[in-house]
């Protein structure tokens, strides 16, 4: 057999996602490239690893066993790399973080200098919705999670990193005066919502219910970036985090609409399971943040204070 480490990684990801398309997206590869590697890998076995029924791929029992073996091989390769670095006296290992989708505008700034200082650390950062983030945390599949709304069903510890501000935002074609009537405004504006399970949607719905507002719902989109593009196109308005629209505000492509009761203010917090036994890598990252987070906020997020 001549299967490669790359083929093992690809097959493992296909099994995890149950989809060639999703695997290609997560691996940042084209779908044809993943399909070719899957075919080449499967051709080395006399027993099928997958079955295609209709347009859906199914993993055979044998395929699941091979995927488990592939994971063990990959872990052993990582272990060899880490042992080499440890022998050289370098901090090494994997740092696994799951981040809610809007957190992609926050977390990298708290990682950059730490990763530059420790070249032996491999960063695995999953950007997804709140429900999947909390699922990964609950299953202890990650070291940390970044959220803007703390979970109420998990026993956690936390470190607050940055204030999160959410405003009503839209394109700049219509001008809004200060002191506009909140209830009348929401009745007439087509609103764009995030999907169920999103922390931004949760904050938005809480504000609407708390303010007893009647709204005209326009559409539902599954990412902060998709909402932003819809706003730029003039499809509607949305309550969204300030952190993701800095450039659009500076370029006068989007505007903050002055509404009483906004911004909604929450906190970006790094959380982990209470009592978790941290690896040397995750413990080092915590210590790094304790010493340096204030400076990072001051240097990277000072523009926040304008709003």
Structural write-up:
The protein is globular and about 70 Å long. It has 11 helices and 11 strands. The protein is an alpha/beta fold. It has helices at 5-17, 20-27, 31-42, 61-87, 107-117, 130-138, 182-188, 199-210, 224-232, 246-250, 280-300; strands at residues 50-53, 56-59, 93-100, 121-128, 144-147, 156-171, 190-194, 216-221, 238-241, 254-256, 264-273. The chain folds into 3 domains: 5-85, Winged helix-like DNA-binding domain superfamily/Winged helix DNA-binding domain (Arc Repressor Mutant, subunit A); 91-162 and 267-306, D-Maltodextrin-Binding Protein, domain 2 (3-Layer(aba) Sandwich); 163-266, 3-Layer(aba) Sandwich (D-Maltodextrin-Binding Protein, domain 2), CATH 3.40.190. The strands form 3 sheets. Strands 3, 4, 5, 6, 9, 10 and 11 form a 7-stranded mixed β-sheet that branches. Strands 1-2 form a two-stranded antiparallel sheet.
Features:
307 residues, alpha/beta, Arc Repressor Mutant, subunit A, D-Maltodextrin-Binding Protein, domain 2, 7-stranded mixed sheet, globular
List the SSEs and their pairings.
Blueprint: H1 5-17, H2 20-27, H3 31-42, E1 50-53, E2 56-59, H4 61-87, E3 93-100, H5 107-117, E4 121-128, H6 130-138, E5 144-147, E6 156-171, H7 182-188, E7 190-194, H8 199-210, E8 216-221, H9 224-232, E9 238-241, H10 246-250, E10 254-256, E11 264-273, H11 280-300
Parallel strand pairs: 3-4, 3-5, 7-8
Antiparallel strand pairs: 1-2, 5-11, 6-9, 6-10, 6-11
Helix pairs in contact: 1-2, 1-3, 1-4, 2-3, 5-11
